[in-house]
Write a structure and sequence with these properties.
Elements (H helix, E strand, L loop, with lengths): L1 H19 L4 E4 L1 H7 L1 H42 L6 H62 L3 E4 L21 H8 L11
């Protein structure tokens, strides 16, 4: 009985101590950190360049398609010319049929290229973003462990109804500037705007 009473008292004491322990919470503006990180800027430039390359390729395909359509239209017009012989009409008709097949192939190629381009760009965007967020999270985790934070919240986060998740903070535990400075340590001189 005495042993049970000691166990119960120990458990109550432990519960009371734990209940009084306040979690240490930090906040960070992830939007500011993400946008201010030098790698984000470089990745954005690279990604925009890739988008432009895809768009240029796509435009070349559309130009080829339009030229083929114009050729087809001209060939079709000449097949109805009464001044040309029957064998010439037949040759032009075959040429028009060949051009039509070329146009149909170009249409498929354009659709396939667009689908592939969109898929590649989406996958690349998510992969690049994920890599940057991993870098940021590593620094946040290290800071949280070092400073004894039990929780780090994103002050830029919004709920489903587009209201801020954090309604009040005195910013005493805001680690945004520290994290951003740590991320930008050792960045190339031209990469970080002062």
């Amino acid at each position: 009985m005495e042993k049970s009473l000691k166990s119960i008292l120990s458990l109550l004491l432990l519960t009371a101590i734990t209940a009084n322990a306040q979690p240490k919470i930090a906040i960070i503006d992830m939007k500011t950190v993400f946008e201010g990180y030098w790698k984000t800027k470089r990745v954005s430039e690279t990604f925009e360049g890739r988008k432009k390359d895809y768009a240029d390729q796509h435009q070349k395909m559309i130009d080829q398609y339009q030229a083929a359509n114009e050729d087809y239209r001209k060939i079709k017009e000449t097949t109805s010319d009464p001044a040309i012989s029957a064998p010439e009409k037949k040759r032009r008709g075959e040429e028009a049929e060949k051009k039509l097949k070329e146009i149909q192939k170009l249409e498929r190629d354009i659709r396939d290229h667009q689908k592939s381009m969109e898929g590649n760009l989406t996958e690349t965007h998510f992969r690049l973003r994920r890599n940057i967020l991993q870098d940021i999270r590593k620094i946040i985790n290290t800071k949280a462990k070092t400073e004894g934070f039990s929780l780090v919240l994103d002050s830029a986060a919004e709920g489903i109804n587009q209201t801020p998740v954090i309604l009040f903070s005195d910013n005493s535990n805001d680690i945004t500037d520290e994290i951003l400075a740590k991320l930008n340590e050792g960045a190339p001189v031209d990469a970080v705007e002062e």
